[in-house]
Amino acid sequence: MIGITRRTSLRALSLGMVSAAAMTAGMAAAQDDTVTIGYAVARTGPNATGAGITTIPNYELWVDTVNKAGGLAMPDGSRRMIEVVEYDNRSANEDIVRSIERLATQDEVDLILPPWGTGSNLAIAPLMARFGYPQMAVTAVTDKAPEFAERWDRSFWMLGGGHDYATGLVEVLSAARDAGRINDKVAVVSVADGFGIDLINGARPAFEEAGFELVYDETYPLGTSDFAAIMNGAQDSGADSFVAFSYPPGSFGMTKTAQSMNYNPKVFYISVGGAFPIYPGVADGKAEGVMAIGGVNADSPTIQDYFQRHTAFVGNPPDSWASAITYASLEMLAQAIERVGLDHAALAKELSTGVFDTVVGEVRLENNQLRDLWWVGQWQGGSFRAVNPADKEGASEPVIPKPEW
Amino acid sequence: MLTTTVILGLVLGGTYALLALGLTLQYGIARIMNLAYGELTLLSAFVVVALFQGLGLSPLLTLPLVAAGGYGIGWLLYAVMMRPLVARSQGRGRLEVDSILATFGLLFLIQGGLLLAFGANFTSISYLDRGVTVLGVSVALNRLIAFGICVVVGAALVVALKTTRWGLIMRAVALTPGSAPLVGIDVNRAARQGFALGSALAAVAGASISMYQTFSATAGVVFTMKALVIVIMGGVGNVPGALAAGFGLGLIETFVATAIDPGLTLAATFAIFLLVLLWRPQGLFGARR
């Protein structure tokens, strides 16, 4: 048996304390050299798909780009490498909240990047506010953004609200109707889930106000995989325009069903998923003329360069809606840090008032929101081009009627 | 109008029934409630898509391959993972709880593997996506094929279980696994075959799903749920019951979507599910225990 005397244990204790102190000192020194950025994103669970398309690739691309350039530029002209602390939030709000707490209190990261999705961003907003971190809520679509920005003054809402997208679409259709290209009947279907409900609630009054008649107006449950009955109803309704406020599986399913039953409305609009790079493949190469939510200025050299870098780094092009905005939010963050450093209050103020040069052009937030967005896009000649707001620089002319499948 | 509803409903029901056949076999014969069933389906769907996109192999051609692969995976899973659970379980209840927990873990394992291998993207291919007119109703060819596979496989299973010696053994094991050894039946082997065959059917269902539906690595649980509802409605382990319940569900969903409101399809499904559970908990076609 080994006797442990008080002396040896004391010695061991002091040795342990010294080495622990040395380690923390080492870590503190390392922390001065790097900027730690934490995020809790959905690697698993139902949000993994959205996060895997829009959020994670852009975070990784940005960190890679910054670190290859020598790190984040600081106000004093020095550069500090980014170190990432990542957690899987498993698409559960409890996990997201726990991870954010951990990032803020245990890992003590310098900055926290938001998770994917409206619900996740709302879930962490009070916590981010309590710890004082700026929150660049990019992938959050909500009509209540003005309220939230007021309640949590370091939160930034960058993807508009359902009402904006619905109104944008009604504008496009009104112009086409006034030009005599489509009739005033619209068939609209919506998924009975947060986003679909938001959009249809914004769209119904907007359509009515513009003098459109909703001849087919139905909702379908999340997870519906068979759209034959719905598309049959829409086809029989006599509407020239088909509008679906849908999630990707629904958007893709309806596209395929419309093709297989040879349903050729003059306007074919789907929501999330329409701007994904895989959409033309889903549509069997016949995506031309399909409208969807989002869009990019496909002629802009910065966008073209971003698409190229994304393709080279990730292996596939970004989606043409929230991806570029996500990347732009990170560029804003980097530029704000270069101007004011890592102090959270100063950073939030700079993000709120500064002007930034990003892949989507010059960005300036209004009341902590990005309002200079594209609402409607259309596949034209192989790229997903923004068509509304029509008066915004870089907008393409919508093609109506859409060519047949 | 009515023919449209009936034909669309039958085709939809066929795709549902095909999904449920494997699960009902696994539960009926091997007594394993396989919660990772949907993930096995997805695995096969991803493999079919990868072969289609990478090598240009048509999904119909790869279908027998993934079916064989599914059989092999099911065989291995049973031999390595399920067999110890069966060996140490005394009664049926214990095995059910253990297998549910074990396959629940397997679900996340396969899901993680799929995310690593194929990424989080939505996957969808365009294959035989053209319309075919059946009695004046336009139906997507790929769905019609799934319907055809379901009818052929389902009928073959029903006949084999009813008339062959192999079917007799399977039914004996399903009915009284305790007494089957008394007449010289190797229960372990029969259960392994049942489980493997169920996995093969899951793979076939996955291959047909890959032709007509958008899916992602995290969608497996949706398939498991749908299959589970059909299996329980049809009577656990009852192949004709699963077929009938699948077709019934497809017809009802289509009827509700066209005549009442597409928003109520899910509600109608679960309302009927509830009714069945209340009045015939053994399933529409299940034998009383």
From TrEMBL, chain A:
All copies of domain Leucine-binding protein, residue ranges: 34-382
Cross-referenced CDD domains: PBP1_ABC_ligand_binding-like
Coiled coil (UniProt feature): none
SUPFAM superfamilies for the chain: Periplasmic binding protein-like I
Keyword Transport: yes
Alphabetic keyword roster: Amino-acid transport, Signal, Transport
UniProt entry tagged with the keyword Signal: yes
Source taxon at top rank: Bacteria
Family of this protein: Belongs to the leucine-binding protein family.
Protein's recorded name: Amino acid ABC transporter substrate-binding protein
Automatic annotation (TrEMBL), chain B:
Pfam families reported for this sequence: BPD_transp_2
Keywords: Amino-acid transport, Cell membrane, Membrane, Transmembrane, Transmembrane helix, Transport
Entry's transmembrane regions: 6-25, 37-55, 61-80, 100-120, 140-161, 193-215, 227-249, 255-279
Xref: InterPro entries: ABC_transp_permease, BCAA_transport_permease
Keyword Transmembrane helix: yes
Compartments in which it is found: Cell membrane
Domain of life, per lineage: Bacteria
Signal sequence bounds: none
Bilayer topology term: Multi-pass membrane protein
Similarity field: Belongs to the binding-protein-dependent transport system permease family. LivHM subfamily.
Name of this protein: Branched-chain amino acid ABC transporter permease
